[in-house]
């Protein structure tokens, strides 16, 4: 079994092409993700919706009731993430203590962590940044 | 045929083993004939972890996509051993993959 080993610059170009194709395929696959019933633990109309905005649109951290409700709802549907440690791994956090801190309201989740969760649960689309030029 | 003078084995530029959470990515070691040999970004101690040490020569992502192409071509099916429903590849099979500098 053999792999061609071109220069690093050529490898980067290859990766760019392959990663873009894989990204397009994943975005299309995302549209076919299963549809599950929404959470019913809290009445979301009683809370601000600013946590669904982007930072430039005026994002604010979600209320802790929403965090707990969203996380528990997610964990009930996905047994692979049914512990706070597993959920921490999915969200790129170093420990389950941070997940618990978000749930109990002692810490607000950073924008990137919350946005990732919203994308994973189909609540917001992911941002695709346009490439202006290849400048490396 | 003996390898060309500048050819290298993958093991010369990467650490390759199972039970390897520090890997850049992992290769399915054991599974169906379709799954076996597939590179994945999800860690599993049973999978073969690959961590590129010489990133000045080989980009981990480049290797990932090359291994994905190898898997899609069905090359591992010639090497995998086992029963019809469950086959496996060896860590040594991955270590001996040849790299051909251009």
- Given helix and strand content, the structural type of chain B is alpha+beta
Indicate the structural class of chain A: mainly alpha
**Whole-angstrom Rg of chain A:** 19 Å
Order of helices and strands of chain B: EEEEEEHHEEHE
Strand content of chain B: 25-35%
Biggest sheet of chain B, strands in spatial order? 2-6-3-5
- Shape field of chain A: elongated
- H-E string of chain A: EHHHHH
Question: What are the segments of chain A in which pLDDT stays under 50 over at least 5 consecutive residues?
Answer: none
- Biggest interface pair, counts: A-B, 15 and 24 residues
Mean of residue pLDDT values of chain A: 95
Instruction: Give the N-to-C terminal Cα separation of chain B.
Output: 18 Å
Separation of the first and last Cα atoms of chain A? 32 Å
Rg of chain B, alpha carbons: 13 Å
Please characterize this protein's 3D structure.
The complex is a heterodimer of chains A (136) and B (102). Chain A is mostly helical and 136 residues long. Helix content of chain A is 46%, strand content 3%. Chain A has five helices and one strand, in the order βααααα. Chain A has helices spanning 8-30, 64-77, 84-90, 96-104, 111-120, and one strand at residues 2-5. In chain A, helix 3 (84-90) packs across helix 4. Chain A is elongated. With 102 residues, chain B is of the alpha+beta class. Chain B has helices spanning 60-73, 76-79, 91-95; strands at residues 8-9, 14-18, 25-27, 30-31, 39-40, 48-52, 81-82, 87-88, 98-101. The model of chain B has no long low-confidence stretch (mean pLDDT 92). Classes of the chains: A mainly alpha (136), B alpha+beta (102). Chains A and B meet through strand 1 and helix 1 of A and helix 1 and strand 9 of B.
